[in-house]
């Protein structure tokens, strides 16, 4: 018979062993990305592949900025993601507040169609959007791409923010209004500060989603100088001679902003994903 | 206040959706403005086309296998990370990484690792003696589907981990205390307490993941482009092929509309089956 203490210790060992396996599965591909980006060209094609670079170098990163359009793609991606976030948040903050505070016809149906729009295949939306946006000359435009992203980001933001707003007690605004503030005044002074953490989290999710998006960006932007990162980086691979070191350096840099955001919002992440957010 | 959201919703979601369905009854070239009404011809062409039925089968295979594997792995990892031991919060954070990083990075990392000539996966399997010759994972018809499924599993299982983990944390502990007093084993506790408590969240997670995997375009498109020889051609990739490679916007829309209809049918059956189960 094993003692209670020993059994606990055995159990703990098993937890650590299993966790190590899980982290290896999750972490190895990421490790491989970073390590390849630090290898000089000769070492990448080594057989057998080396787990550590013999002569680590930052040359791939240097080449990325000097020889490719990476910096421009990065700037474009940033611009589109910010634009998407602003459009979605400004419309959804007002919309979600209205959905939780006022009663009017069609409110329930609108609420339900928001959820239903999660089912819309991107592939179904992209064809009509291309046709419609080209009619109003918004293809090859960052504004057009941001608007196309609203098809996802708006329902998502509305849904998550609705949850946040309904958690704020209505008595707070009523008290402010009794004290003589207007409805709009109460919204800006009382409700908005309360909802700020939720709005920031929603904004970060929207940003990340727009940053990662590939299909719409591929189809709506054909002008090389306007391309965003995902189609831009995939373009590096078209060449007959694939420069993996360069490509992995680009992958590291496109992932980096996500990793940084991620550390900030790890807690909200649970709330956001729990609320049915973060489509993917 | 709801107005901005409402206008964007109509303009960017409902109107394009309707327009997409509308052009599925027309013949339209990507670059021309002409719309020719052809009734059900696109649908008839599609139903007679073996490529469509093959893509449908691949979609079901892809969604079915990735979702079930994600659920199994995700739930197992969530149960592990729910145990109390030092370092689990770091592990919880790290596990989410594949879900947050851009799809383009994920695809590029796996392409490099799958490579037949210098890929680390082949090297590892050769060393362990599991295979005699390197395998071209993504470009051989036999292994391509399994290879993309593995990437779909790796990228998206963290979603299951985080949602299940959030639910595990609110299961009342006294349920387990009571069971222990009654002499229930760990296994009994899992079947009689944990699993029933997780039922509702599992229902939603399976729903969302099925919708999203079924609609997923970029993992397969970027890894194999639907090849080799259509071995990984799913419906979303076929939409792209029809609309943006052969420029038949009408036919592309038809595939997308059928996808959407199919999704609605699957979801209706799913809801019905679940409700019936509840009645028992």
Q: How many DSSP E strands of chain A?
A: 0
In total, how many beta strands of chain B?
Answer: 2
Termini separation of chain B: 45 Å
CATH topology of one domain in chain A: MetI-like fold
Flag low-confidence runs of chain B: none
- End-to-end separation of chain A: 49 Å
Rounded to the nearest angstrom, the radius of gyration of chain A is 24 Å
What is the class of one domain in chain B in the CATH system? Answer: Mainly Alpha
Question: What is the CATH architecture assignment of one domain in chain A?
Answer: Orthogonal Bundle
Helix content percent band of chain B: over 70%
CATH top level of one domain in chain A?
Mainly Alpha
CATH architecture of one domain in chain B: Orthogonal Bundle
Q: Please identify the oligomeric state.
A: heterodimer
Rg of chain B, nearest Å:
23 Å
Query: What is the CATH topology classification name of one domain in chain B?
Result: MetI-like fold
Could you say which overall geometry of chain B the principal axes of the C-alpha atoms support? globular
As laid out across the biggest beta sheet of chain B, the strand order is 1-2
Would you list the SSEs of chain B in sequence order as H and E?
HEEHHHHHHHHHHHH
SSE order of chain A in H/E notation?
HHHHHHHHHHHH
The assigned structural class of chain A equals mainly alpha
Name the descriptors.
heterodimer; A: 280 residues; mainly alpha; MetI-like fold; 12 helices; B: 280 residues; two-stranded antiparallel sheet; 1% strand
